Amino acid sequence: MVMNELFADRAAIGSESRLAQLFGGQLGPDGIKFSAGNPNPDLFPTTQMQAAFNTAIDTAGNHLFEYQEVAGPIHLRQQLANRGHQTAGINATADNVLVTQGGQQAIDLVAKLLLDVGDEVAVEAPTYVGALASFDQYSPTYLDVPIEDDGMDVDALEALLQDHPNIKLVYTVPDFHNPTGVTMSVAKRKRLVELAEQYHFYILEDTPYRDLRYHGKSLPAIKSFDRHGRVIFISSFSKILMPGLRVGWVIADELVINKLRQLKETSDLESPAIMLHAVSAFLDNNDLNQHVANMLSTYRHRLDAMLTALKAYMPENVHFTQPDGGFFIWLTLPEGVDTQSLLQNVVMPQAHVSYVPGQVFFAHQNIKNGVRLNFSGVNEQQIDAGIKRLAHALSVTTVHSA
User: Fold this and answer.
1) N or C: which end of the chain has fewer CB within 10 A?
2) Strand ordering across the sheet containing 141-148
């Protein structure tokens, strides 16, 4: 007999209600999947990573399989601190770095550190569903901040802070935002740090896509403007190496890192040492920047192909973002359209195409007319065919008459 009445409240909230919506049903043999968020496995450096695992084992021997430092190997932490300086303008040392099991664990640890029941959290509307799933566990009060073509609407955030001076945390995905693809301007990054100092809150900067820029110049991280420990920076190797490695990291003030390390220790003791030493060996013996550069051409062609198809085929009343990088494009359909119902009743059964309905990306799940499209996992031919099918399905349904 299952006694679910004994489960904690957070088990009833759970992450399944949000994350389960990211995975669609069966599309058939001619199906085209725009709902994924995965990197292209053909671009994984499998041979080099195999060599890195062998190097890690040959170098450390049996010690590799003993208990290790909770924060991660110091050499890897210094490599990550150096990379933060080189690619994001962040000044940090190994003591400012905690290695985690993917960026998702990092988000959860920060939520566990900062949030009590009812605490106010400002999030972009829409925002990354995995972050909402983690925050949900701690029963916060969500406050929505609109997102514009150049990132979070910081004027709206300031107005929100004036009405809610007890906001503890502002969560943002500033680079090639998931799900919209937009990037926060430098001016907004600087102002966000100023607001954090003025109103006494933490910024959680979640940026797994920042290396995946296909057009334009890279921008400094929000953390690079931080002078008083207000910004907690998170990134991951999931999008630029392999998601199965489950290696992410946090860069923050030592006080924050020490607290997060204690929470990680109670959660899993440590990340698997063989993974971390292998990643460190890969970084020692390969040029990560060159590996990323080699991937960019493939993703650039796919982004450009999707934007070209959207411009060619979409009805005029369907609007879409035009990112310079990342994995996603956001469609806004006319108000009154429920893209979840549309997906299940029309798009999947008739067009054999999948996307992620937008409702799940809003903290209050109150906006239903958005769509997230992914282009990283499909080739140019699939993109053109799939967008054409999707556009036809939208043209002959309620979207056309809305």
Assistant:
1) N
2) 97-100, 248-251, 231-236, 202-206, 169-172, 120-125, 141-148, 151-152
